[in-house]
Specification:
12 helices; 9 strands
């Protein structure tokens, strides 16, 4: 069964009377080369556990199952469960879970699978992420510290561009800083909208995120770091002095003193700061607040 064939996809839909859900971002890949790029980019080995987010009809799931020790596919749409039972029936190393990924404890699943001896290698997360919840899914994986060796996911090109962007870029923002704080980011593939059924309105990009064993920054308070980043980018057109003051918590003159102590021009804007500079800023803000409260 060729799950990348548009005719096969239509036959499956007809057989199961399955109507695509726009709200769940259901678009199926019809290009085998893209699947190969995802598998290769994820560096899946024969001893690895693969967790797939949103398997759809199982096209990427089947490719992963050919190589991995075990694949756990998490699908929110209950209507796709019987479809997946059919398309993945030839694999004995695939488990499908009908659950919302945002409400799933992946750390618990990984721990249970390791205890059962299902795999002895790395943990690889893969998926074709729904456009509307790409950022929440990625941040859930990173913030919760899911012990994944790599996260290889397809997303809207615009989101991928933001994640990869560096200081000074037009799309550099809070998500850029957040993801790059946790991970090294590598582009795996560009995916045109023409290779999906149905065809979306935008192109996609596959990225591999490799969580860092040791963080790039030594932070006094990680929460303060993300607060500073969020405040700085909340009103992009404002200077750092004004955006950080507007966020509350510190008077403008205190913010000015912090910036000048670090040698950062108060007139700069958030998109000009490197991750390292945000780290220095957060540490100095944390020190300022600590001194004020003593």
């Amino acid at each position: 069964m060729d799950l990348t064939s548009p005719s096969t996809i239509q036959e499956i839909r007809d057989r199961h009377n399955f109507q695509l859900s726009k709200s769940l971002g259901q678009n199926f890949i019809t290009d085998r080369h893209v699947l190969e790029q995802i598998i290769e980019g994820a560096e899946i080995g024969e001893d690895d556990l693969v967790i797939e987010i949103g398997p759809g009809i199982g096209v990427l799931t089947a490719e992963a199952a050919e190589t991995a020790a075990k694949v756990i596919a998490i699908e929110i749409d209950a209507r796709l469960i019987p479809v997946l039972e059919e398309t993945l029936s030839s694999f004995d190393n695939v488990e499908v879970i009908n659950r919302d990924i945002l409400k799933t404890d992946l750390k618990e699943i990984i721990s249970e699978e390791r205890e059962k001896g299902s795999f002895g290698g790395a943990v690889r997360v893969i998926g074709n992420l729904p456009y509307y919840i790409t950022t929440p899914i990625i941040m859930k994986l990173l913030e919760e510290g899911v012990p994944a060796d790599s996260i290889t996911v397809m997303m809207q090109k615009e989101v991928a561009d933001r994640i990869r962007s560096g200081p000074g870029g037009k799309v550099y923002g809070a998500i850029s800083v957040a993801v790059q704080y946790y991970c090294d980011v590598e582009k795996v593939a560009s995916v045109p909208k023409e290779v999906f059924v149905p065809r979306p309105k935008v192109d996609s990009t596959v990225l591999t995120l490799k969580p860092l064993k040791e963080k790039k920054l030594q932070l006094a308070d990680e929460k303060e770091f993300f607060s500073c980043v969020k405040a700085a980018f909340a009103q992009r057109r404002k200077t750092l002095l004004n955006s950080l003051s507007s966020a509350g918590g510190m008077e403008k003159e205190d913010v000015r003193r912090v910036l000048e102590t670090l040698g950062i021009d108060p007139g700069r804007r958030a998109e000009t700061l490197s991750i390292e500079e945000f780290g220095q800023l957060a540490n100095e803000v944390a020190n300022e607040k600590a001194e004020r409260n003593t």
